[in-house]
Each structure stands twice: as C-alpha cells, then as structure tokens.
Predict the 3D structure of the following.
Amino acid sequence: EAVSHLFAVAASLDSMVVGETQILSQVKEAYDLACSTGSAGPLTHAAFQAASRVAKRVQRETTIHRKRVSVPSVAIGEVASEFFETLSGKTIVLLGAGDMGRETMRYLIDAGADDIRILNRTPERGRELAETFGARSMAWDDLDRALIEADLLIGTTSSPEPIVNARRFRVARESRYERVLLVLDLAVPRDVDPAIGELDDVYLYSVDDLQAACERNRQERQRQWPKAKLIIDEETQRFVNELHHRATGPVIQRLREHADEIRREEWQRLSNKLSQMSLPDEAHREIEKSLDRLINKLLHPPLASLREAAMDGHQRGLLEAIKRLFSLGD
C-alpha cells in the first residue's frame, strides 16, 4: 500500500487537482532532502526512483497531464499559444503582480515570451516580480503607452473597477493603427471593460470563458484516471515482485553454487575412475550431462517453490527452511 500510494502521489493521481504538473518535482525534492540528511536507505532509493519512472510512464501513456485546469495555464497554454504562432517577439503587458500575476508569469516564460512589461500600483512589488522572471517593470502612469504597444494584454489585479475602460482604450487605439490585440482578463472583477471586446481588432477572453475550458479539461483528466490507475497497480506489483526477487536472489545463488561444487567434486572423483576403464570420450560427456540434469532436477522443485512464494510475498519461511536444509548459512 505504501508503494502504491507513493506511485499515485508522484503521478499526481492523489492530488486535489488530478494531473497537477508540480507534484513530481515536489516528490523529487522530498527524496533529495532525505538523501542529503542520510535518511534514505536502499528501499527508499529504489521506491523513489521507481516512482519517478512510473510518473513519467503515466505522463507518456495517458493525457492526464496534458489538459490544463488552471485559468492562467489555459489562458497562456491554449488561448495565447494558439492565437500567436509564437510569443517570442510579442509585447506582453501584465497588469498586477499578485499571486495570479506570478503564476501567469511562469506560463508566459515557459511559452517563450521574451518581452513582458509588468504594471502594478505598488511599484516595488512590480519590480520584484519583473526581476524574478527577467521581465521589465513599468510605472502605473505609463499604462496608456503600454496599451498602444501591447500585442497581448493580461489583467490579474484585484481592482474593484475596470482599469482599462472603453474610453481609455479608444484613445490608445488611435495610435495602434488597427493592430490586433488579444486580451486575457483573468481578474475578478474584470480589469478590462467587456465593451472593448466588441471592437473588430480586439479578441477578449474573460475568466468565465477560460473557466469553462478548465472544467472541460478537468473532466477529461478524470476520464483518464482509471487508465492511469491501472498503470500504478501494474507498476506496484512489478516493484514488489522485484523486491521479493532481490530477497531470494542471494539464497538461490548460494544454493546453485553449493550444488555446482558438489557436482564438480563428484565428477572429479568419478572421472578418475572412468579414466581407468578406457571408455570413449562420448561416454564421458554423456555421464557429465547426466550429472548436470540430475542436479537441475533436484534443484527445480525448491527453486520453483521459492520463486512462487516470492511472487506472493510469503518467501521468508521457505527461505529459512532451504538455508537450513542445504546448510547455506546466513
């Protein structure tokens, strides 16, 4: 159960938001911390390394991580990335430097944006966010100029009233020379007057539009959950089987070595006697093969039973019995 839970967490099946992409990196951070403090043993190493592999398999074989479910991720990853061929070289104006603005910045950077201008009523907060992501901070009073230069306008403030009203935008629009503007209004209440979206050269998406896409993607992730769970169950069984095999491996090896040693001793003794009987070489080879077959047939039942018990996780008692019966020691 512990292994299955770890695999499910790493694959983001046990998260509040199924398919959350940040979960695997958090699991890796926990593992790195355990390693750095000397708290990870062989079993922990094996389990966490397998968890990373399982999470990547879930990502590869399902679409559970490909459907974005947060408003900023849908806004940038689906709307903006489809609207523009690339965000590189586009002038992006971000209004607000709070949590929503910070999350939006991560998606913008991942999408290749390289000209982001941040405007915030509190200049210090805007500068801090700009420095964090290598963006440019602009004074709040420069909003009109920013509207003229923008290819993409994103609203993320908590202003009770629209920051960009219809009158203000119409003034800026005169200097835009009919350039198309994409507006992603992620703010609640809205940062951008809905009337602006009625203009021919403006494409406006509100948070309501984006949340509908988020819900569709969330439902699609839930439909992928059973397929991902099957992978988790399969990989858990595989890991447990390998774990039990590791426990039986040394005993199997010692038993085979013990049997080989007995066979060599007996063959050497018998070979000395056979050499005095003037038997043909073919007879010698047949006798040696018979010894090999005899050893293999004698070993097959205990080894098969041990492997079967290991598959069921009940190998401990049989291991001890085999070690005692064949004097294999510890």
Notes: The longest strand covers residues 181-185.
